[in-house]
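Standup notes
- DV: blocked on the single-chain target, sequence here:
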Amino acid sequence: MRKASLLTLLLVISFPLNLLAESLKTDSLRVDANWLSSQLDNENLVVLDVRPREDYELEHIPGALHFPESMTYRNQDEGGSIVEPNIIQKSLQELGVDTHHEIVVYDDGKLFKSSRVFWTLEVYGFKNVRVLNGGLVAWKKPGFPLTDEVSKRPPSKYVAMVDHQRIASKFSTQLATINPKQTVIDARSTKAYRGETSTAKRFGHIPSAINIAVHQQFENTDNANFLLNSDELRNLYSGVPKDEKVVLYCEVGKVSSTNYLVLRELGYDVANYDASWREWGNDFTLPIEK
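- DV (later): unblocked, structure below
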């Protein structure tokens, strides 16, 4: 916990305990369904449903706007490259979303789609984004309300600003492999890391990369993924120095976005390689290891 000033301590002492608990809870980059339910009347809160359109139209959290995860890709059929700034800017302006909003993202419960959107929003200048742990499954379990009413907001004046520290390219990943102060993490399965399976023409992994598969961060309950608690996650990443830049990759920068979410929550300086193994594994000029 960060060292508090005397003034901060006095303010904390004067807070009701329930408010203090809520303030500590929202320091995390994940929220639970109970917290989200209590915040739906917050006019500055924007809830984004990132599932496919047909799922959103069937049922969604009241007030949620539809922003499908597919919108984060330049061309999802070809790979994981992130959508261009002008396109994300136009989309979010039309949706009525801006950087001053508090944003909570949710998906079907797997966390992959919501984490990809979380990362994309951070790349494009958003500083106050969180993910609903367990997604819509977690919302439904306590019986919280759902609606099929499509929500709308007035257009925003959002201007896309790129945070280059949050995104890795083929070139910057190459540099990371030879930089002793950077760590490359492969979020794919152990079989993919070892070169037993591959979605690219080549088999193996990026040189120097260590393997922390995405599923190691979850507890699966009711067919939904819930992130492990902070202590368990710190233990999982205990071998990764906090003073090193971390570069993540997977197949197309999707499941590695979940590792990105976790590492951001743990306080790491981390970037996600969007084109990932789909680009690297198909480029025969680049080295690989098995």
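- Follow-up: Residues 182 and 250 are 17 Å apart (CA to CA).
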